[in-house]
Design a protein that fits this description.
The chain is α/β, with parallel strands linked by helices. It contains 9 helices and 5 strands, in the order E-H-E-H-H-H-H-E-H-E-H-H-E-H. It binds cytidine-5'-diphosphate.
Amino acid sequence: MAPQPFTIAIDGPAAAGKGTLSRAVAEHFGFAHLDTGLLYRAVGAKVLLGMEPQTAAETLSPSDLENDGLRSPEVAQSASRIAVIPSVRAALLDFQRSFARRAGGAVLDGRDIGTVICPQAEAKLFVTASAEVRAMRRYKELSAHGATDSYEKVLADVKERDARDRDRSTAPLKPADDAVVIDTSDMSIDAAVAAAIEVVKARRSG
Ligand code: CDP
């Protein structure tokens, strides 16, 4: 018999460490992982090249996700601008939902996984940290890849994206009522991973 679906939804604001945490949790449980931010970034990148947002979302293909440029601050901003468009979000919905319910378990990280994509997820986490801590982590990450943006610029970008993600009317960034909030401002990544694994274990046995 195929293993039952089990969805772990990990949401949170920009640069909260969802990616690292999600990969570690997926590996621990042997689940598949989908970084849904990458879908929005890939659409945002195509729009920067001149494509119309809805067409970009409807024609998204796996090869669009294999682009090193997707991690850039320009693409992040473009992603958050196209992410307010309901038809763009609708075009990405089915893929995310079927991924979430695949046999054998799935971890999805994003903004609206626990609230819109998979309200029935068996475990929901909302990972956050202060804007300053998140900006410092992103600044170090970008600098390590050769970017020259200042910390102040990264902080302003993070705040601008958070405001746009929170204030939009379709699928705004917010914790689901039944999400466990993990504030990683003063936590090491290992401690955050351990806390997340405990939450999921409790839901699996509960
Ligand atoms: O890695 P970071 O947290 O900076 O961003 P991301 O997760 O790659 O997401 C980039 C942008 O896509 C976000 O600022 C959101 O506007 C949008 N997004 C969304 O609207 N819904 C999701 N499930 C994931 C990302």
